[in-house]
Amino acid sequence: MDFWLGNDNIYALTNHRLSSIRFDLQAVDGEKRYAHYDDFWIEDESNMYRLHIDGYSGNAGDSISELHHNQKFSTKDQDKSNHTYNCALEYKGAWWYRNCHHSNLNGMYYRGKHASSSDGVNWRTFKGFNESLDTTEMKIRPKCFRRKLVH
């Protein structure tokens, strides 16, 4: 199933408090990786939901902060990718594209290896551009979050 919280809701969650984000990624073969970013927020619609992300840790590799940080959100009808062609149209999904991507979690769901390049659900430093991931989750929480200990 596909769920997208929506950029207005992500903005509402992240604009009044410091937030972090964790990307949980799973390949078709069951291999799991994660990427955590200490700093995460997006701007509002008038600023095209510009992405702010930094402070990587994890075992998936950083496929978002270098190329996608400070980038506006692109859709098929609103290209903000700074490229000669429309990245959202070419890579079949809306995302924070810039020349075009190292990650594309809204790409086509091919469920594994595919011949086309870069238009699947991709995280470059995990499975590259020719293997679509099986499952991805983006988990946002306030930086002040403290886990409650259960005795």
UniProtKB/TrEMBL annotation:
Q: Please, which domain of life does this record's source organism belong to?
A: Eukaryota
**CC annotations in GO:** extracellular space
Q: Which terms are listed as keywords in the entry?
A: Disulfide bond
Residue span(s) of domain Fibrinogen C-terminal? 1-144
Answer yes or no on keyword Disulfide bond: yes
CDD domains in alphabetical order: FReD
Which residue ranges run through the membrane? none
Q: Output this protein's name.
A: Fibrinogen C-terminal domain-containing protein
Q: Which organism is it from?
A: Larinioides sclopetarius
Question: Taxonomic lineage of this organism?
Answer: Eukaryota, Metazoa, Ecdysozoa, Arthropoda, Chelicerata
